[in-house]
């Protein structure tokens, strides 16, 4: 390897610490994603282990911009995203990017001064991380890969020893080991549940495997899928699972609301079921709604999550039935996107979490529910069974009847809920921070 990396134990971590860079591709999204949560937890865990951490963003800010305006422009971008350009400037940027891409790019630091108020981003960004940027990096890399089938090259500051891409991206850091996290192969495993171009996605994963020192994944199920679709990956894939910091960050505040007998939506603690996640086909929200209505229970259902691809199709039955019976919208409440601190409050006082997703690479909502001791219903498919084990009610996600029976079982039996709460906390402890640190130690060569 161009730059030496050291295998470390907890005792010598401070001596042999590394400087690791992760991408900020998903961290830049204002409402976050599951991958953004993964990236933030990864960065914070690496720092806890004694490593230095940098985060590489792709804001459309020229390296020739003054230092002060780089910082101002970056945090404006982080809050508001890229601003659309009129046709001619947009065409000029496209042609400029096409010319620059084959030569690669050089990352530059975003200054950290007292000029810009940054506390508003405390929940979104990793703690004490250095911020790097490369002008329009991720847009340019996707365009370059689409045209030429090749990865763009990024040159990082010399102190960085490892690049860990938290998502399959068509970019490779020059001169250092590259690690790529592949969370799942759902675009290939369940091609009817997402909007990806199948051929392009297949080639992207193949090239990530070629470019990588190792492939990181988050469950044994995903590891098996990767090695099934890409036999050349065998011996290169490491499962680290993942962890969640939701309980650690929000526990006291959330339980204050629960003990006070209220939450931000005016609901009584223990008086509602909760689904949280995107509304899209793979999350199985349509069947969940039908199963809930079929169950005949009176406990309301809250659905917290933003609408994603084909959300209207998932909600079609709900909207049609609501026109006939307006009370359905009282029993099933669509909350839209809920900020993380409010979501933690909703979660901590839910009667149970319902998450019968068709397939997941890991299933973070299940872990977060079990951490809080909230009884959980989930799918017996994919990694969800692996994460939940016997600490949740596992159902057939393709069967409305199976989901409905599971909902009734949780709703009708306090003893069942109590048993699931205790078992969930024990199971969640297997995915705690210390276990995650140990698995990350085994990842980096």
TrEMBL record:
InterPro entries in UniProt: Glyco_trans_1
Keyword set includes Transferase: yes
A Pfam match: Glycos_transf_1
Annotated Glycosyl transferase family domain residues: 272-425
GO MF term list: glycosyltransferase activity
UniProt keyword list: Transferase
SUPFAM superfamilies with a match to the protein in the record: UDP-Glycosyltransferase/glycogen phosphorylase
Domain of life where this protein originates: Bacteria
Protein name, UniProt field: Glycosyltransferase
